[in-house]
Amino acid sequence: MNHALTAQDRCDRCGAQAYIRARFSHGRELLFCAHHARRYQAALERQISELHDETHRLTTTAPT
Fold first, then answer.
1. Nearest-CA neighbor of 1 among 26, 32, 23?
2. Which has the closest alpha carbon to 34: 51, 50, 48, 53?
3. Of 44, 55, 45, 60, which Cα lies nearest the Cα of 5?
4. pTM listed for this prediction
């Protein structure tokens, strides 16, 4: 079960807020900011078993 990513979840590459969770078949997972997820997308697609993507939150505006 995927929990929603929060501001506490950090990119394993740079430490920025994570918006992507990549889960591998052996059960481990890596978290990525949107920048690093795009950078490693091709390699991730070949290796992961599940992808949880919350990058839509980057363009969603809060009600005023």
1. 23
2. 53
3. 55
4. 0.84
Q: Edge-to-edge strand order for the sheet containing 29-32?
A: 29-32, 20-24, 48-53
β partners of residue 21:
31, 52
Return the structure tokens found at 42: 């091709």
4-30: pLDDT as tens digits? 999 999 999 999 999 999 999 998 999
Measured on CA atoms in the order 4, 62, 39, 33, is the torsion positive or negative? negative
Closest of 3, 2, 5, 1 to residue 18, by C-alpha: 5
